[in-house]
């Protein structure tokens, strides 16, 4: 099969498209023919040497969408449409940047959809992260106000769509004025470093909930934008910074503001939620944002675009599509 092999941490040149043997299938695992794989900041962290526990060479990719190629005695059927994500994919074992991937059965979610594979490939990890952040991390309720810090990221766009679908009012930030209309927010904001000041001009008491997708550099300002008894969920690290040095809670956290975090796995995305949103996307009732397609041979360009943030929306690789 054709696969992307990361030879070691470093520049995009360390991503090499190679012909490698089809992966064997251990007991309790299944082989998936990958029709599409999403690109994520996690894989950028792996390539830059910022991820722990990775051995090289490694096929990256923390998610994949496709069909079951070898069910290997499990309850899945051959040609069943499935998605898979997380669980060590692309780090402790080879991931989704390939024409076939082998994963544990328990992290495979079946579905049915006539959507194009590129559209489906943009959904699993993005939906899981956005859905889990809003439900587990924030317990967001209809009628509440939500601030999304990093609103033009794929997760930010998905979170805005899901939050508005839930009945929340969405504020979202971007550093680029030309992207203000792309976020699907009720109140799009330019991130000038003082988002809290802008938020409190709109809502003097602060927002009910905030989703931090940029990282620790903007977290203090996001906390200041949140009301007493409101919650901030730390989910993303677009800045590649996730540690708070010399953390003193009383000095760092505004009085009465709650800080949570979310990092999910495949079992945090219920099959019925995946199916419901695929159906709603197909019906034109909801959109998780733009999708940018890349042939597997163009993986270096895709990673360059991912690293530089030149695209709004989700980047998706198509391993069976010629350049």
TrEMBL record:
Superkingdom of the source species: Bacteria
InterPro entries membership: ADH-like_N, ER, GroES-like_sf, NAD(P)-bd_dom_sf
Residue ranges constituting the Enoyl reductase (ER) domain according to the UniProt record: 10-317
Statement: the UniProt record of this protein carries the keyword Zinc: no
Keyword NADP included in the entry's annotation: yes
Transmembrane segments: none
Alphabetical list of PANTHER family matching this protein: QUINONE OXIDOREDUCTASE PIG3, QUINONE OXIDOREDUCTASE PIG3-RELATED
UniProt-recorded name of the protein: Zinc-binding alcohol dehydrogenase family protein
Source organism (scientific name): Dactylosporangium darangshiense
